[in-house]
Amino acid sequence: MFKNHITDIFFDLDHTLWDFERNSALTFEKILDQNEIHVNLDSFLKVYVPINLDYWKLYREDRITKAELRYQRLKKTFDAIGAQISDGHIDLLAQEYIQHLSTFTHLFPDTVEVLEYLSPKYNLHIITNGFQEIQEKKLKGANIDRYFEHVINSEDAGVKKPHPQIFHLALDRAKVSAENSLMVGDSLEADIQGAIAVGFQTLHFNAHNEANHKICPMINNLSEIKGIL
């Protein structure tokens, strides 16, 4: 399936190993309740999830700052559902969301089983656009930090996936060539196409029920990796 021998596997974290949407929902359930903001959680999340993805794309493209991302995704969601929430409350919620998000530790099914299977055979690493202080807490909280030799984040690299520089930094840290490396991630644009441009082999984890494509192999469950590698 892969044209070159693979020695190193680079994983995305959110939406690939760490179940972002589930943990995010639990975080909002907690902080909305604590702040006595009475909105229907399901209705809130239905609007928030696509807005968050849109704002992450803007952030990835350096069109907004981290502060704008954290504020605007909440502001737009509350406006869309007709909830009158003050800027002060939005700022507080944005802060509490970051504080509590990494305390929830749900992983995608079979994550630990697959990492246990891969770790004796390959060098494993993380490349993430997430914020450094939170990603480290996520890995440790979910007890999977021990599997990864290097964790490369966009704040450390100074650029975000799909920029080639973050992938080159990852290769330099791991001391491996791109042709012997595999990138596994959920984002076709950031993870897959970004890695391909640098020469990685790639595997698309279809976490968002996207249409089939021929860009690279695609899996719908992490356990399928055991049948490939």
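The above is record 1. Record 2 follows with the same two-line structure.
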Amino acid sequence: MVTQRLVIVTGLSGAGKTQALHSLEDLGFFCVDNLPPALIPKFAELCAQAANKINKIALVVDIRGGEFFDTFFEVLSDLDARGIRCEILFLEASNETLVRRFKESRRRHPLSTYGEVLEGIQEERSRLQDLRGRANKIIDTSNMAVQQLKEVINGIFADGASASGLHITVISFGFKYGIPLDSDLVFDVRFLPNPYYQNNLRPFTGNDAVVREYVFSSPLTSEFMGKFSDLVQFLIPQYSKEGKTTLMIAVGCTGGMHRSVALANRLGEILSEKNFRVTVRHRDINRSK
């Protein structure tokens, strides 16, 4: 018997829910945008009773539902009572990012009055706080391109033999730009030798061989990398036993351009060699250029 998988996509307006829904559709989910929450239980039952049973469903439910949205928590309780298990994917982004996106698209925020976008964003963030706490997965799309979000969605929701087990994302970042909000583990590597202070290395990044060789030429880096990778490999099966499906490991240095990039790449290589599903992403690599 194939278990029905119901994914509810929600979160802040402008955070990428439409793009997430498109990605889920590409993965074979039957997708519906802006479905009133009260209709979700009946809709899930109809999909299960269809001649060709629809076993993968993705629904966008958000603040556009107005007064219907206020019944969302009651609906979640109803789903539990009916034995219908759902996963909540919550998308968010920084206020600055959301304001910029609304300005670029020239669309009105659902809660804004007289075109005051920031006011609408702040109200929406407040109203969704409790729902955010119920989410199974939270994705901050502030620094993500559409393709990057698609890769993250694929890592979480793709099925089949090739997608079994925990999906790991290793992300490099700069502390000066803030810690990635959806990180599970955060490691600070600012104690390692900094290529930034070498004039001949400053223009390069941790993706370049000269920077990588400089960083790993230090015995301190080699010792740390060994302990770091051992810790991560110890933790991965523990998280898997707890039912976790995704793990984001954030590696940070000052600007997110040199040390964190080199170490994130190396950790990704080590995990790939051990046949873990891993994606490496560099959030801030181009900010300092």
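The longest strand covers residues 167-174.
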